[in-house]
């Protein structure tokens, strides 16, 4: 492990460093928790340059939106838990660069919270929905065009299918034969999967500030109140359709197992959780949703599950070059859970999609 003491030392943090621990939960960045002798903690992260080629633009986006949200939550109880807060470097920037030119940032650590890999409680699902709606509501008056596009076509389904086809063509690590069933299922679903991309491109749904990674493990739930109090992992905040966020919420909040579960018998869509999330979400976002956005809510859950299936399978075919993996079939396992979830969403479609007309 790289010695990160000089990096921590370059942030404007007073006091004596007590310990540093690696946190392995993200698929993209490298994360450490630094504890100081007086008990204060900070999250120290290296932004993955292969994924984010313009990390300074990522930091500028984060700076802009955290300032905006902080003003909105200032008067609320536990205000410091409601938004990530960047720690400046000693030279007054929102980040520091190490000797290899890698960008690092520090956030104040938010304590007394729970994080879940998936849910099994409808009340928490409702709270998750509220958290996503609240995040969007805070940013509803932020001009989306002020944000840089830090990953081009991030949620563009056509682009993700083009990447899948390229990976199939290259078959770089000879894995194509082993995934014929997955590939053929996903190719058959391509047209339907375009729903969100098409709606955004045609202007049927508006461009808004979106988080783009609202998976369940990116929400901090307050230990005491159980409120979904803070949305973390702001790297991909950009302009988009808020359906990308409802989609990732429904994908990760309705599944009954972890994203990389190998026993597909455990992977289902829990219709009660799906419904509860949408109720909580509407309670906070109802005032600004357009009719078309509302009509596409359930579809957003399916499309976002699909885009993740395509992306995981693509990375599997490319030899695991994008996501952190811990074993050779990790990306394939992830792709398979997403396909299983899509299929179960379809089985339960009448039950879960009717509510979009409420
Ligand atoms: C990645 O950064 P992390 O691990 O929260 C990915 C998301 C996926 C997610 C799936 C920049 O998120 O798009 O939905 O994995 N982030 C990026 O777990 O590609
Ligand atoms: Mg992320």
Keywords:
358 residues; alpha+beta; five-stranded antiparallel beta sheet; three-stranded antiparallel beta sheet; binds 2-acetamido-2-deoxy-1-O-phosphono-alpha-D-glucopyranose; binds magnesium ion
Structure report:
By secondary structure, this protein is α+β, with helices and mostly antiparallel strands. The chain has 13 helices and 10 strands. The strands form 3 sheets. The chain has a 5-stranded antiparallel β-sheet. Helix 3 (122-139) packs antiparallel against helix 8. The longest helix is centred in the last third of the chain and has 21 residues, at 297-317. Bound molecules: 2-acetamido-2-deoxy-1-O-phosphono-alpha-D-glucopyranose and magnesium ion. The site of magnesium ion (MG) has 5 residues, from loops.
**Alpha-carbon Rg, integer:** 20 Å
Can you summarize the main beta sheet? Answer: 5 strands, antiparallel
Strand order within the widest beta sheet? 1-2-3-5-4
What is the terminal separation in angstroms?
A: 53 Å
Distinct compounds present: 2-acetamido-2-deoxy-1-O-phosphono-alpha-D-glucopyranose, magnesium ion
Unreliable parts: none
């Amino acid at each position: 492990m790289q010695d990160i003491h000089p990096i921590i030392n370059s942030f404007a943090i007073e006091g004596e460093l007590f310990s540093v621990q690696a946190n392995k939960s993200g698929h993209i960045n490298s994360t450490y928790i630094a504890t100081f002798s007086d008990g204060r903690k900070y999250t120290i992260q290296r932004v993955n340059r292969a994924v984010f080629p313009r990390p300074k633009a990522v930091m500028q986006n984060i700076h802009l939106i955290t300032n905006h949200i902080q003003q909105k939550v200032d008067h609320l109880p536990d205000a410091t838990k409601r938004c990530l807060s960047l720690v400046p470097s000693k030279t007054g920037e929102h980040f520091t660069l190490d000797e290899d030119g890698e960008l690092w940032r520090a956030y104040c650590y938010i304590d007394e919270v729970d994080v879940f890999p998936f849910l099994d409680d409808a009340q928490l699902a409702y709270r998750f929905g509220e958290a996503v709606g609240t995040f969007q509501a805070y940013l509803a008056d932020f001009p989306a065009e002020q944000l840089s596009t830090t990953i081009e076509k991030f949620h563009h389904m056509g682009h993700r299918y083009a990447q899948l086809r390229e990976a199939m063509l290259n078959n770089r690590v000879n894995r194509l034969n082993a995934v014929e069933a997955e590939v053929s299922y996903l190719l058959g679903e391509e047209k339907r999967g375009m729903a969100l991309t098409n709606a955004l491109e045609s202007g049927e749904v508006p461009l808004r500030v979106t988080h783009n990674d609202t998976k369940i493990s990116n929400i901090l739930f307050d230990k005491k109140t159980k409120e979904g109090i803070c949305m973390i992992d702001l790297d991909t905040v950009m302009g988009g359709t808020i359906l990308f966020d409802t989609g990732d919420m429904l994908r990760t909040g309705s599944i009954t197992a972890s994203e990389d579960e190998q026993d597909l018998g455990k992977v289902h869509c829990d219709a009660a959780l799906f419904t509860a999330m949408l109720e909580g979400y509407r309670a906070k976002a109802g005032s600004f949703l357009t009719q078309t956005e509302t009509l596409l809510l359930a579809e957003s859950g399916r499309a976002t599950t699909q885009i993740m299936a395509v992306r995981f399978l693509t990375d599997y075919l490319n030899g695991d070059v994008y996501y952190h993996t811990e074993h050779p079939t990790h990306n394939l396992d992830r792709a398979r859970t997403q396909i299983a979830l899509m299929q179960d969403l379809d089985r339960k479609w009448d039950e879960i999609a009717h509510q979009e007309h409420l």
